[in-house]
Write a structure and sequence with these properties.
- The chain is α/β, with parallel strands linked by helices.
- The protein is built from eleven helices and eleven strands.
- The chain has two domains: about 240 residues, NAD(P)-binding Rossmann-like Domain (Rossmann fold, 3-Layer(aba) Sandwich), CATH 3.40.50.720; about 110 residues, 2-Layer Sandwich (Dihydrodipicolinate Reductase, domain 2).
- About 35% of the residues lie in helices and about 20% in strands.
- The protein has a seven-stranded parallel β-sheet, with helices on both faces. It has a four-stranded mixed β-sheet with strand order 8-7-9-10.
- It is globular and about 65 Å long.
Length: about 375
């Protein structure tokens, strides 16, 4: 019998909710009638092979609750596409708070914002060891630099691989990358791309315009949403690495970088009634043949968290393949394909081809 891929989750928010729902949903679907999977099977692993064995949060409505209940607790507001979940023995445990909760959250209603639990934080590395987790999926809020680094160190101490879905630079940080390599632990990061979201659309258009010989002069990407991610990002001091991550994801597709004043990419506003729906407003201006000015405007509307989970399920399985093969350190092909801020940026078509070679174990 094939072994399960045992994962731990840091941050039981909307993204974790979509992931856990999806692990159940696809157990009742076959690959012919199930939409939304990039790979129904990846390296011999299917979604039913992924098992959550530990979970951490700091919200009082989630800590101490069974995971299958906690993922539906407020302030989570993502689409519920799998209401019935298998019983789980996993109880959400109290993580360290550190910089995980922005101070402005207390000014917003209970059902929209984080509310701190009074439980004592557990020792993350000890829980990881006791649970036999192989991979930690990090879903902490944007701007949680100290907290993400705390979980990162716990992974290194416990011998656990990592999928870093947030824009705190770990896989793309030289020192952390080297530590994971030394420990023989794979890591994919940083800052998850959606299955088809604003960053991917912006990159595709940008790269295609460049390939067609035009000169891009300026561009913006404005995003609004109503989940806790957008509420959290109202605090501008938490956005430094997020803006770097999203901006570099697009700049990397340009033959010639745009000046800072000619490119603006990032979250723009919190609209509570949008819930987990994210709306992107995109504009590009360029000069074509004869230096004639032209422009494009687009609007994209997506459900943010399922859009993320569709990529995370592949990131988990790629990390497991690396564990099986004894590969440590950042997985560059997977990171370039799945993350906004990988250690090595690639064109999306090249990254996907490299990922397929990695899955087939045909890397040079």
């Amino acid at each position: 019998m094939k072994q399960k891929i045992k994962i731990a989750i840091a941050g039981v928010g909307n993204c974790a909710s979509s992931l856990v729902q999806g692990l159940e949903y696809y157990q009742h679907k076959n690959s012919e009638d199930a939409a939304g999977l990039i790979h129904a099977e990846l390296g011999g692993y299917r979604l039913e092979d992924i098992e959550v064995v530990a979970a951490f949060d700091v919200d009082r409505r989630k800590v101490g609750q069974p995971l299958n209940k906690a993922i539906f607790a407020r302030p989570n507001c993502t689409t519920i596409f799998q209401q019935e979940l298998s019983n789980t023995s996993v109880t959400v445990e109290m993580g360290p708070v550190l910089d995980g909760i922005a101070s402005h959250m207390e000014r917003y209603p209970d059902d929209r914002a984080f509310r701190l639990s009074e439980a004592e934080p557990v020792a993350i590395s000890e829980v990881l060891k006791a649970s036999s987790a192989e991979i930690l999926v990090c879903y902490l809020p944007v701007g949680s630099e100290q907290a993400v680094r705390h979980y990162t160190q716990a992974c290194l101490d416990a011998g656990v691989a990592m999928v870093n879905c947030v824009p705190v630079f770990i896989a793309s940080h030289p020192e952390f990358a080297e530590e994971f390599k030394k420990k023989g632990l794979p890591i994919i990061g940083d800052d998850i791309k959606s299955q088809f979201g604003a960053t991917l659309l912006h990159r595709i258009i940008t790269r295609t315009l460049g390939d067609r010989g035009v000169k891009i002069e300026r561009t913006y990407q404005l995003n609004t949403g109503g989940n806790t991610d957008f509420l959290n990002m109202l605090e501008q001091t938490r956005l430094k690495t997020k803006k770097i991550s999203k901006t570099e994801a697009v700049q990397s597709q340009l033959d010639q970088r745009l000046a800072d004043e000619n490119i603006h990419i990032g979250p723009s506003d919190y609209v509570p009634w949008q819930n987990d729906n994210k709306v992107c407003f995109l504009r590009l201006e360029w000069r074509g043949f004869g230096d004639v000015p032209m422009n494009l405007e687009a609007r994209l509307s997506v459900e943010d968290s399922p859009n993320s989970a569709g990529v995370v399920v592949d990131a988990i399985r790629c990390t497991k393949l690396a564990l099986d093969r004894g590969i440590g350190g950042p997985l560059d092909a997977a990171s370039a394909c799945m993350m906004k801020h990988p250690r090595e940026q690639m064109r999306d078509s090249d990254a996907f081809a490299a990922l397929e070679r990695f899955i087939a174990n045909k890397m040079e």
